[in-house]
Amino acid sequence: MSDLVRFGRDICGDLAQAERREWWLTNGLGGYAGGTIAGTLTRRYHGLLIAPLHGAMDRQLLMAKADATLDLAGREWPLFTNRWYGDVVEPAGYRNIEQFRLQGRMPVWRFACADRIVEMRIWMVAGEHTTYVAYRCSGGGDEPARLRLKLLMNHRDHHGNMPVTGTTAALKQRDSRLEIEWPEGGQLYLHSTPAEMEPRQDWHEGFQLKREAERGLADIDNNLSLGQLIFTLQENEWVGFAVTLNDQLQFDLPAAMQSFLDRDKSLSKPPSEGVSEPDWVAQMRLSADSFLIKRVLPSGELGDSIIAGYPWFGDWGRDTMISLAGLTLAVGRLVSARSILMSYAKLVDQGQLPNRFTDRGETAEYNTVDAALWYFDAWHAYLEASDDLESLQQIYPVLQGIIEWHIKGTRYGIGMDPQDHLLHAGEAGVQLTWMDAKVGNWVVTPRTGKAVEINALWYNALIIMAGFAERLGESATDYAELAEAVKTSFKRFTHPDGEGLFDLLDGPNGDDSSLRPNQILAVSLPHSPLDSKQQKQVVEICSRELLTSHGLRSLSPRHKDYAHHYKGGVADRDGAYHQGTVWAWLLGHYAWAEYRVRGDAVAAQQRLEPLGDHLKDAGLGHVSEIFDADPPHQPRGAPAQAWSVATVLVAWQRLQQVIDGQ
Questions:
Q1: Which 3 state secondary structure label does DSSP give 644?
Q2: How many CB atoms are located within 10 Å of the residue 565 CB?
Q3: How many other C-beta atoms can be found within 10 angstroms of the C-beta atom of residue 76?
Q4: Which positions ≥6 away from 44 have C-beta within 8 Å?
């Protein structure tokens, strides 16, 4: 594995830069851990263990951090940093960081303390709610050194803040295991290498969460200290602990570390032997694994799904289907792809896939017009990779039902207009497309009517369905004829001046000529309803008005509602979400569309490289959800987003196949 993400004192010793860069780990069950290079808590979502306790998405902050201090020759060296109420930074342990790097996905710090080097590592166990933290000391003479770890715990929803309640936990110590039980229920276990435990429970008040303040949210949190672990350090010997929900954990710190590294090394390899790829693609391959989860679905069965983004998103139907090819097929995980597709088949209702899941992830909401259409695209990609006709035979009736429901009409005004065979969708107060921001009762981009990407997806789905019918020996005539009718009517989207496509037809206020990136899907999808001239016009207008280094703007800078930056409180941010803000997931679609029109696979692939550079910023090793509309396009939103990674991996791989002549 490469050291793509590596920083020295120039970044680590600059608090603003060290806080800007975050590490994130996941466990394949929806649990995660995260923090900053500096060691400060800047988000309510930062912590060593955040895990679902009751529902699939009922994620709770269970351990915030372990503040480490090196005792050496009568001097204390803080290996941690805290930001307190009033913007007070104390202690400034970040100044002792000599180097930070990612080894695969494992964050690794190196602290320089006089003649000693202390290395710290953090990792999570795949398929288990367990986080390990390890330290080792090297260099120097015979002077004895001790490491003191203050254990800061919590027990709150990861979307919230903890008030000081006076509550303490019940503790039981058994050898090197500490059992922690909260008055409201729930047990946590902490295992360590040999150490002295000094229990002392007190609340540490006033942690200032800088990023939450920037987002206009409550920015003060409090954590409960359980006391401290004290380790005697030996040259190059690992010490540390694991915090876990697993009461049967077989604690073996070196073995757990090696297992994590071995798994990451395996996942970072290209799916095909002999394939050469840049380091940033290998790093994105690791990122892809971070979003795949197993969880109990609303059907009550254990299934596979995709987390839309960390830290605050759950699994969304639309995001799952858009991301599936990149997170599974592009990395050679066909079994995972099939499992996700079949899991969602059980959730299809009235021709729709769920948009998202509420009530701790246990109840499906169906307010989406495009998730079901992306489902066809995901199945198409899976079958292209697998030729799994047995699964196609099994899912075919479900896909037939989705088409039938769209023809006759389903929830939220979604249905085919019998006059022009285009899909319309929308009801007052409901957001149905991916441009789904809503502030109170205000739907920022309602797009009620016939949206351009929805009808590109509709045409794509019909052509795919015709192909599926032929492969199974069924009649494809109805699907093919309907697709041709849609293609004919799709010409209505063409702007009369040749400047791309209308974003919406037949809306409450007529046709919407706002220049948005949705039209690029009419070129990038496997089956385009446009001729070559129209495709070229779409790519040219998008490249001229919307293209940036990190994705496509969601609205032209010439529009009166264009938002230059994504910042401020909830209403300000949601109001800018799709009004200019750059979306990384669209860059992969743009790159493929550009290749289709211009025929230069190398140039199209180079469009993706800035997101490779971005892996060293914001969510390290991951791709952010969004960026400011104006240069320098600061990263915003979730620091690790599934479809941002997925669409880039798919585009890079497909373009590489073209370059290699495959």
A1: helix
A2: 17
A3: 11
A4: 61, 158, 159, 160, 161, 209, 212, 217, 218, 221
Domains of the chain (ranges, CATH numbers): 6-234+244-265 (2.70.98), 276-659 (1.50.10.10)
Cis peptide upstream of residue 632 (ω within 30 degrees of 0): yes
- DSSP β-bridge partners for residue 88: 84
Residues in the chain: 662
Cβ-contact 475, 515 below 8 angstroms = no
Residues 6+ apart with CB under 8 A from 287: 105, 615, 621, 622, 623, 640, 645
Reported as a single tens digit per residue, the pLDDT across 59-86 is 999 999 999 999 998 899 999 999 999 9
Cβ(47)–Cβ(35) below 8 Å = yes
**C-alpha closest to that of 94 among 12, 6, 10, 211:** 12
Residue 542 has a pLDDT of 98
How many angstroms separate the CA atoms of 83 and 87, rounded?
A: 6
- Euclidean distance between CA atoms 435 and 413, whole angstroms: 17
Integer CA distances (angstroms), 93 to 33, 89, 232, 609, 655, in order: 20, 10, 20, 34, 45
pLDDT tens, residue by residue, 383-414: 999 999 999 999 999 999 999 999 999 999 99
User: What is the H or E stretch that residue 541 is in?
Assistant: helix 532-545
Instruction: Give the up-direction half-sphere exposure of residue 562: CA atoms within 13 A in the CB hemisphere.
Output: 17
Classify burial at 308, counting beta carbons within 10 Å of its beta carbon; exposed 0-12, middle 13-18, buried 19 or more. Answer: buried
pLDDT at site 361? 62
Residues linked to residue 142 through DSSP beta bridges, in sequence order: none
Q: 617 CB contacts (<8 Å, ≥6 apart)?
A: 20, 21, 635
The 10s digit of each residue's pLDDT in 103-139 is 999 999 999 999 999 999 999 999 999 999 999 999 9
pTM listed for this prediction: 0.96
Give the H or E element holding residue 589. helix 585-598
Give residue 163's Cα distance to chain centre: 29
141-150, 255-264, 453-462: which range is least confident on average? 141-150
Note if the bond before 91 is cis, omega within 30 degrees: yes
188: which strand partners? 180
Which residues have a Cβ under 8 Å from the Cβ of 363 and sit 6 or more positions away?
298, 357
Cβ proximity of 493 and 500 under 8 Å: no
Query: What residue spans of 438-527 are helical by DSSP H?
Result: 452-471, 477-490, 521-524
pLDDT value at 53 more than 80: yes
CB 189 within 8 A of CB 258: no
Angular region, 20: left φ>0, alpha ψ -120 to 50, beta rest: alpha
Two structure tokens written together for 631: 């240069």
Can you give the pLDDT at residue 165? 79
Nearest to 64 by CA among 124, 157, 153, 189: 153
517 and 559 in contact (C-beta within 8 Å)? no
Going from the C-alpha of 131 to that of each of 32, 440, 509, the distances in angstroms are 9, 38, 54
Closest by CA position to 237, among listed 100, 348, 145:
145
Residue-wise pLDDT tens digits, 555-599: 999 999 999 999 999 999 999 999 999 999 999 999 999 999 999
Q: Encoding tokens for residue 110? A: 């190196």
81, 39 in Cβ contact below 8 A? yes
CA dihedral 605, 608, 610, 613 (to 10 degrees): -100
Parallel, antiparallel or unpaired: strands 32-36 and 22-26: antiparallel
Determine which helix (DSSP H) or strand (DSSP E) holds 178, and give its type and residue range: strand 177-181
| Rounded CA separation 435/444 (Å) | 8
Nearest CA to 425 out of 368, 482, 348, 376 is that of 368
